[in-house]
From TrEMBL:
InterPro entries attached to this UniProt entry: Fe-transptr_FeoA-like, FeoA_core_dom, Transcriptional_repressor_C
Keyword annotations of the record: Iron
Domain Ferrous iron transporter FeoA-like residue range list: 1-78
Keyword Iron: yes
Source domain of life: Bacteria
Protein name: Ferrous iron transport protein A
Record Pfam families: FeoA
Any one Gene Ontology molecular-function term assigned to this protein's record: transition metal ion binding
Taxonomic source organism: Tsuneonella litorea
Amino acid sequence: MTLEGLERGRRARIVAVDWDRLAPEDAARLRALGLDAGARVAVAHRGVAWGRDPIAVMIGRMTVAVRRSHAAAMEIEPL
């Protein structure tokens, strides 16, 4: 399962990220924000128009907006 498919409010742990699917600058930004293997996350909100993009992801006390294509590169395990 990927982060893109996680239900709103449900918690998960990122188990792997396919960094090759992302542009190098996007990958660096996501790593700097802590969105890497081992991070515990939850989907706080999804956009309502244009394919439900972006996705607001809670990581710790921080909320980060990520594109659906980025979330699709993150394999998760629900908690």
